[in-house]
Amino acid sequence: MKKRFFVILVFLYVGIMLQAQSHKIGEYYGGGIIFSLSADSLHGFIVENIDQSKSCNWNDALIAIKEAHNHNEQGKAYTDWRLPTLEELQTIYKNLKIAQLCSANSTIPVCFAGELYWSSSKYIHTNSETGDYEYDFAHYLKFSDGSTNWTAMGNSMSVRAVREF
After folding, report:
1. How buried is residue 29: exposed, middle or buried, by Cβ count under 10 Å (0-12/13-18/19+)?
2. Does the first or last residue of the chain, that is N or C, have fewer Cβ atoms within 10 Å of its Cβ?
3. Burial class of residue 95 in the structure, from the number of CB atoms within 10 Å of its CB (0-12 exposed, 13-18 middle, 19+ buried)
4. Which stretch, 1-15, 75-89, 124-138, has highest mean pLDDT?
5. What pTM did the predictor assign?
6. Which domains are seen in the chain, by residue range?
7. CA 95, chain centre distance (Å)
């Protein structure tokens, strides 16, 4: 009886340890590349390793992210992809690009082919002539230098999806 109880405890412990796998930034996991982690390294954020579109407006970007054929083979298995916030794009730039985890000389191939990437963060513009608020603007990140700005949602930019794990 004691032996059976001990064996059951060992199986439970091994099962828990397998579920509690820690991760690292730059690791391929869950359909993309980990770019941000929780303090315990068990949860975080993943960015797709391919663009969902090289050139589309902001509204079409939301559609492109949801279409499975726009994702890598592993990414097609997930349906919770979304447009990253501006802060998330900045974290991707800092943790993958500046850390050289995402370059021609790294284990991760050049993972951002486009120059300008849409964020989900909208911008409310005040028309200087009328004083009216205009809501059809969003922020973007310039991946070559990490700078940010805003533009009309009708303009075309690259799209890269993120998800949580």
Report:
1. middle
2. N
3. buried
4. 75-89
5. 0.80
6. 23-164 (3.10.100)
7. 12
